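Late entry, evening session. Most of the bench is empty. Finally got around to the prediction I had been postponing all week. Sequence below, unchanged from the version circulated by S.P.
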Amino acid sequence: MAGLRIGAERNGPRREPGAGTGSGPPYGMLRFGLRSALLGWLLARVPTPRRNPFALGYVAVVGATSTFAMLADPDLVLRLQEASSSDGDNLLHHPLRALLLSGFWVAGTVWMPYLWAFAFTVAPLERRIGAGRAAAVFATGHIAATVLSQGVVIVAVLAGRLDPAELDRLDIGVSYGVLASIAALAGLLRPRGRLLALGGAALLLADQYATDQDLVTGIGHPAALLAGVALWRWLRRVPDRRAHHPRGVAQASAPAVAPAASAAPSAAGGAAVLDRM
């Protein structure tokens, strides 16, 4: 019997070193942990009504007005936009209406780029500081840039440097609020992410100066960026809402599962690297 057992062991299948013993590195669990960390990182940044009520609500309003502008009578659309415009004449006679309603339209009929702009600027900012403060940043950029740019136009018209017709030029759109949100978000990022955000905004401004010589946007866009930068000190005193997310607390207090224990440090490290931006 001993000879038979020895023969069976000699003729049986040979195992690789560490196979089935648990001594080798858990490559499968490591890959699974990294994939789970990446998926979780992406899902945590998808705008939802609970995480981004302001961003999604504003996009819905802008989408509705853009759809109306495409389908309604052009004369009616023009009259409504002129009544909502934040041009110099409306600011002098109907300032509250002009400042409020001008941000609910987009310049032109294509609004899809603004959807991505909100997804990558306003939504991340809102996740960090909350809906109310994100709305305050957006409104600050919109109002400050509008008042400054149109103030220059009004002064130039009064000084005889510009034609009085410039006071009635249509001025609508959400770009001021979006640019202020980019600058405000940059102040909450780490240095590398801050440089990327501000560099991208600077490229947008450079492209606008190269292709469009409009005085109002030429003043308003950099003013909106500066308005967002001016809010950095205030925003940095606001606690990051992501650090107090109930899901994160529950995951931190949950016991570790034995099979995935060795893969957890690698997955957490991968998530930390992904979250540095």
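Two things to note before I forget:
The longest helix spans residues 131-158.
The CA atoms of residues 87 and 171 lie 5 Å apart.
Will write this up properly tomorrow.
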